[in-house]
Design brief:
Helices cover 45% and strands 15% of the residues. With 152 residues, the chain is of the alpha+beta class. It has two domains: 13-121, no CATH class; 125-152, no CATH class. Strand 2 and strand 3 form a beta hairpin. Helix 1 (13-26) runs parallel beside helix 3. The relative contact order is 0.14.
């Protein structure tokens, strides 16, 4: 059995989102935004002259893990399904709080730099992130064993 951080948290998702916003402000963010579409959530902020984007995939409320109990495999009631789903959503938000706070504290403590901590999440002019741009190129390098001349 795997252990997930905050798998039993009772902190509502909206309080976690507010905690992220307040934490970012405390560490010097000059802008903050939040949006959702379907099961996808995005958090964005400006800091150190960069725009940062986190995309968080929420669980599917109709997934088998919510419709059936894990031990017996019995179908859950609608209320139990909703409770299990909400618990998973709260866990995701608490994990994002932890990640962002850890990165900011590593920067503040001199353990790391802003660029090293948030590089993958820096937004590029087209709205994609450095991670979106680089991962296919990294995959190609590993497959071909050839370094590209330019990463453009």
């Amino acid at each position: 059995m795997t252990h997930q951080y905050a798998f039993q948290t009772e902190v509502p998702a909206d309080k976690s989102r507010l905690e992220i916003e307040r934490t970012l402000i405390r560490y010097g963010a000059s802008a903050f935004g939040y949006m959702w579409e379907g099961n996808s959530v995005r958090i964005g902020f400006k800091m150190n002259g960069r725009q940062i984007k986190f995309a968080l995939q929420m669980p599917d409320p109709q997934a088998k893990e919510f419709r059936f109990t894990p031990k017996t495999g019995k179908r859950r009631s609608d209320m139990a399904l909703e409770q299990a789903y909400e618990q998973a959503v709260r866990q995701k938000w608490r994990s994002l709080v932890l990640v962002i706070k850890a990165k900011l504290e590593a920067i503040e403590s001199g353990i790391s730099t802003f660029e090293n901590e948030f590089l993958a999440n820096i937004m590029l002019p087209d709205g994609s992130t450095v991670s979106d741009f680089m991962l296919p190129q990294i995959e190609r390098v590993y497959q071909t064993r050839e370094m590209p001349r330019l990463l453009t």
